[in-house]
């Protein structure tokens, strides 16, 4: 009897494994026959994003994702309200932009001194303040500095599970590969830097992602003609023009919109959401 049950269990496990393998081998289907997706994202809630970056995207009817720190929004509240009115996504970038204390400017809010409970409370407070300021609920999160830990040494913990619980997605920073929609952890989307780059440097990344049917999440900071930690307006313009050309097969949309679509499609394919 035990032998029969064991054999049945083995067959079921093999069947599930085969079904999962088949699902993963299916090409991911993007909307309207697109070959890939692109999301343009910007961190910190810097003033130039509200006054220049969002306006440029508006020229092309493209919506971006702006991960903001509430205190930065307060400094240019009316400009950010206009960004929301235009339909751009507002994401959460923490309450204090907390990173490792190895960044001296973050020493007063060093992640090494955080606990999971403290991080959870601050993420909720940031969402509350964003809601009060802009009347929206932040459903996307970007890890400041790309750091996903709290504590130090043997007491170090990941707060990725907290982000997974509170948000539809979480995005990293300075990553090296686009998002694979059939496989990715939605709480750890990769973010590819576009600061300081020319279109000629970004185009090969777009083309490679298109060949693989991936989701390219580009990440930047200031939006201006030049400067440190700046996504050049000339680059943004060329990306928008390239993405809007139907011949290139690109779906360009905010992170929350793409993330929800990916989760829905993965459910249809029998893959983890």
Structure commentary:
The chain is α/β, with parallel strands linked by helices and 273 residues long. The protein has a single domain (33-268), classed as Glycoside hydrolase/deacetylase (TIM Barrel, Alpha-Beta Barrel), CATH 3.20.20. 43% of the residues lie in helices and 16% in strands. The chain has helices spanning 2-25, 47-59, 70-75, 77-85, 116-134, 160-166, 199-212, 233-244, 255-268, and strands spanning 36-44, 65-68, 89-92, 140-142, 149-150, 157-158, 169-171, 192-193, 215-220, 222-224, 230-232, 250-252. Its EC number is 3.-.-.-.
Features:
273 residues, alpha/beta, TIM Barrel, 6-stranded parallel sheet, 9 helices, 16% strand, globular
How would the blueprint of this fold be written?
Layout: H1 2-25, E1 36-44, H2 47-59, E2 65-68, H3 70-75, H4 77-85, E3 89-92, H5 116-134, E4 140-142, E5 149-150, E6 157-158, H6 160-166, E7 169-171, E8 192-193, H7 199-212, E9 215-220, E10 222-224, E11 230-232, H8 233-244, E12 250-252, H9 255-268
Parallel strand pairs: 1-2, 1-9, 1-12, 2-3, 4-7, 8-9, 10-11
Antiparallel strand pairs: 5-6
InterPro entries: Glyco_hydro/deAcase_b/a-brl (IPR011330), NODB_dom (IPR002509), Polysacc_deacetylase_ArnD (IPR050248)
Domain NodB homology: 36-253
Keywords: Hydrolase, Metal-binding, Signal
Task: Please sum up the structure shown.
The protein is an alpha/beta fold and 273 residues long.
């Amino acid at each position: 009897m035990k032998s029969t049950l064991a054999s049945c269990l083995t067959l079921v496990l093999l069947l599930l494994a085969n079904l999962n393998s088949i699902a993963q081998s299916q090409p991911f289907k993007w909307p309207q026959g697109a070959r890939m997706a692109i999301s343009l994202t910007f961190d910190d809630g810097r003033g130039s994003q509200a006054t220049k970056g969002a306006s440029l995207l508006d020229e092309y009817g493209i919506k971006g994702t702006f991960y903001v720190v509430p205190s930065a929004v307060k400094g240019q509240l009316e400009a950010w309200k206009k960004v929301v009115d235009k339909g751009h996504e507002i994401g959460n970038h923490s309450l204090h932009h907390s990173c490792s204390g190895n960044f001296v400017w973050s020493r007063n809010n060093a992640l090494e001194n955080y606990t999971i409970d403290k991080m959870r409370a601050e993420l909720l407070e940031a969402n509350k303040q964003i809601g009060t300021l802009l009347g929206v609920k932040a459903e996307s999160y970007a890890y400041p500095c790309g750091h996903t830990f709290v504590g130090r040494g043997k007491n170090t913990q990941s707060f990725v599970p907290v982000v997974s619980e509170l948000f539809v997605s979480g995005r990293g920073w300075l990553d090296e590969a686009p998002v694979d929609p059939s496989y990715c952890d939605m709480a750890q989307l990769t973010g590819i830097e576009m600061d300081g780059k020319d279109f000629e440097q970004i185009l090969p990344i777009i083309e490679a992602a298109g060949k693989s049917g991936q989701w390219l999440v580009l990440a930047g900071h200031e939006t201006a003609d030049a400067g440190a930690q700046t996504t050049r307006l000339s680059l943004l313009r060329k990306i928008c023009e390239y993405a809007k050309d139907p011949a290139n097969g690109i779906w360009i949309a905010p992170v929350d919109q793409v993330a929800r679509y990916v989760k829905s499609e993965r459910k249809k394919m029998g893959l983890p959401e």
